[in-house]
Amino acid sequence: MTRIIQITEHGGPEVLQPATIHLPAPGPGEIRIGQTAVGVNYHDVYVRSGLYRTLALPGVPGIEAVGVVEACGPGVTGFVPGDRIAYVNAQYGCYVQARNLPAALAVKLPDAISDAGAAASFMKALTVCMLIRRVRHLEAGETVLVHAAAGGVGQLLTSWASHLGAHVIGTAGSEEKSVIARAHGASDVILYKQEDVAVRVMEITGGEGVAAAYDAVGADTFQGSLASLAFEGHLVFYGQASGPVDAFASAMLAGKSLSITRPIIFHYTRTRAMLEEMAAACFEAFEKGIIKPIIPLELPLEEAARAHEVLEARQSPGGIVLIP
């Protein structure tokens, strides 16, 4: 038997309920993992609330975790019991004590990264790698806008972008969060609750705007992000924490020859080779200190509902993990 957190209906954090299920032996190509830390992401909130109808109910949410290989099914190579691994899984099922997983989704963890740090940071690091190396190759000297620069992805994105020589303008919701953004490399921070983001961007850039805006907030920031772009600017719209963006006319991009992308991390790790290449780049960035693992809030698996409450209240230190 293994402990799980499941949802039987969409709704608020209270729909996250503990249960137990039987766990069979791993099948062909699978590894059995005893999980040590489970990452909590805004994607999980979308799934729980019903904004994303991508998990059949009843179902177990969660898209990333860290653990130790306990057993290998027939045909598995490259892993042995005792290996520490991390994984991201578009098919969900991570809010569990133990599980079977296709071995092709797992990557071995370097010893220097803790279980909790990896569970809070691995998918975020993959996302940042996707944003600045795949979706749009970030160049030294460019000025970019990073929304929620004190958040989990925001911290890593700001650090990596500034290391590459970009001038990062971050947004934050408070003076305390602006300190975090600056500590991770933001040259300027806009307090979005007090200031008009697009107006301040134009003031900072002398009216030119930014080469790229990285926006995971969505409805509340979309128009401001577009207004902050320079000619040939690129809006990288990779999340919707404040809700989905309304339909818009493509003609609104024509004024400055703007472009928009809506990347999904699973599309950029869809093959084993793609996953290994991106994971290697992330682990190298951690090893060199370009980015640092997030120190998360740790909660017991059974407190998944509280984890969602903290995340939605924007009180997370940048990452939250559940400990089975």
Structure report:
It is a single chain. The protein is α/β, with parallel strands linked by helices and 324 residues long. The protein folds into two domains: 2-114 and 293-323, Medium-chain alcohol dehydrogenases, catalytic domain (Quinone Oxidoreductase, Chain A, domain 1, Alpha-Beta Complex); 125-265, Rossmann fold. It has nine helices and 15 strands. Strands 3, 4, 5, 6, 7, 14 and 15 form a seven-stranded mixed beta sheet that branches. 47% of the residues are buried.
What's this model, at a glance?
The chain is α/β, with parallel strands linked by helices and 324 residues long. It is built from nine helices and 15 strands.
Q: In percent, how helical is the residue content?
A: 25-40%
- Secondary-structure arrangement, i.e. CATH architecture of the largest domain: Alpha-Beta Complex
Structural class: alpha/beta
- Overall number of structural domains: 2
The CATH superfamily of the largest domain is identified as Medium-chain alcohol dehydrogenases, catalytic domain
What share of the residues does DSSP label as strand, in percent? 25-35%
Low-confidence stretches: none
Mean pLDDT figure: 95
User: Quick one: how many beta strands?
Assistant: 15
Distance between the termini: 13 Å
- Biggest sheet layout: 7 strands, mixed
Q: Count the helices. How many?
A: 9
Radius of gyration: 20 Å
* Succession of helices and strands: EEEHEEEEHEHEHEHEHEEHHEHE
Shape: globular
